[in-house]
Specification:
The chain is built from 26 helices and nine strands. It is α+β, with helices and mostly antiparallel strands. Bound molecules: zinc ion.
Length: 679
Amino acid sequence: MTNPLLEEHALPPFSQIEPHHVEPAIHGLIEANKARITELLEATDAYTWDNLLEPLEEMEDRLAQAWSPVSHLNSVNNSDAMREAYDACLPLLSEYGTWTGQHAQLCAAYQHIAEGAEWNTLDTAQRKTIDNALRDFRLAGVSLPQEKKNRYGELQKRLSALGSQFSENVLDATRAWSKRVSLEQLEGLPDTALANARQAAEQAGHDGYLITLDFPSYMPVQTYCHDRALREEVYTAFCTRASDLGPQAGKWDNGPLIDEILRLRHELAQLLGYDNYAELSLERKMAPDTDHVMDFLMQLASQSRDQGIREWESLVAFSREQNGPGELMAWDVAYYSEQMRQARYSISQEDVRPYLPVGRVLEGLFEVVARLFGVDVRECREFDRYHESLRLFELVEDNNVIARFYLDLYARADKRGGAWMDDYRVRRASKEGLQIPVAYLVCNFTPPVGDTPALLTHTELTTLFHEFGHGLHHMLSQQMVAPVSGINGVAWDAVELPSQFMENWCWEREALAFISGHFATGEPLPDALLDKLLAARNFQAAMALLRQLEFSLFDFRLHLEWGRDTFTTPQALLDEVRSALAVTPTPDFNRFQNGFSHIFAGGYAAGYYSYKWAEVLSADAFSRFEEEGIFNHQTGADFRAAILAQGGSEDPMTLFTRFRGREPEIESLLRHSGIHRAA
Ligand SMILES: [Zn+2]
């Protein structure tokens, strides 16, 4: 019986893949890999790159290529059978990850190569691959004495259970609350949100309208609803979810979980030889140490606070003009901000759409890429597709195809929401020769209707450029070993650099002149519309930045200071951070932290700062283009050579400094956000 997942394909054999192929292929590959690793380790004790790490890379790559189209199809062409096959493989892959990650003999073999004579003959990428592997072995507790190793296992297991319990509590608390309302109470709500509330009621078997705590229901109520009492009630329910307060007080309380998670993370960090969990978290990040992160956040805070206060004062003044409440409360902020935004910068994304037909936008994007990096994009017509709207392109340089990418642009019922880049193949030297990278770029735009082409909003345009930036990082890699090629091995506070960097061209007049073009007349986006977009972009920029800094500082200090004499409770720390930073009011009953899944259930513990960190990098990198010309070919070539080509082969601070001539500075981000420095 043939299995397409076990065959060699330059492009994924989408139409041949059946759900029943999945588990046998993945299971078989994992078992074969394990046997081969054991065999390689036993074959010699003089380990080298060629006799161990090269075959290891080869087999990992084969597994990745079998899994990639499965994971992709599960996301973009979902069926019950495919999901079941996909889910069945998750524990197999996780178990395999643990098996290799804690393999003491394998770790010792890496160590042998790192300390042997061969080390001096290896190139930067090979050494980085080995360093990363040794770091990951260490963080997996491989070299701990048995007793501590057992404890390490217990801690990981318990932390993983606590993490899923945390998000389940948030989910349950979110689902358990809803409120039936009349049309009059929803006055102010836009049509889409009204339809949403109507549909929610129908699904629950009611007449009328239903408000829930899901974000697409909660946010429009806070932003648009004229009924202040309703906003307050919904706000109260939302910000007390999974806590000891509010309408569902104590029912799914995450408070005790937060305490236990922090305690166990601290123990885990100390077990591995760190003072605190923040130090451990930085092991896989670009930021050099905890002082650096604290300085970074405090600098941004001190530069934006005065302007934040001014923005807040003008919001208060605006609400007075509108005969708003005597004192603005938390449930008034989004509402009056929206009123103010509309009054000052009346612009609708719908006004922009006719100027951004998808065909023109893609030509424009490819033109930007050609001008910056000297690479052409060509469409391929004949290929194996899972949906008629799927498109395939190749990157061409000096008549050579250097990479390929799929473009899956439109929303469909069987497709996961959001936008992302993923890869089928990574650039590497294989036995058969150079393997060129293949990427998937996925968006969820509104499909074309009738004869009218698909028309994008400016936000969607930015999303497309963002994902293409990730794609370029993957496709313009010059690396030869998979673990540091493309976005592999890139510190995750640096991985958003190329993506956010590409967004900048969506805000430049010179670029929009050819990225945009009215679908009927071809006229580019009018200057007046762009001016409004630019002004609206920076509305309340300092307030938004301060809110992000509040989350970042709370998260980082929590994992840095837990266990110190000065630390009392998470709530006390949050209050302290707020009193230093926040310009908008927060009521005492707010239990934001109880729903902060990013850091308690996701991977962002002591890492929430990464969002701002990467923004600083991308803004600062772009500022060199502002100085030298946004289409300066040499600057583009330098960015490509220093950042895009390097993948994870070197420390990102080294790479950034090589491109910029110095370490990153926050000025460009502040300037792009319209935040004027404090004196
Ligand atoms: Zn991204």
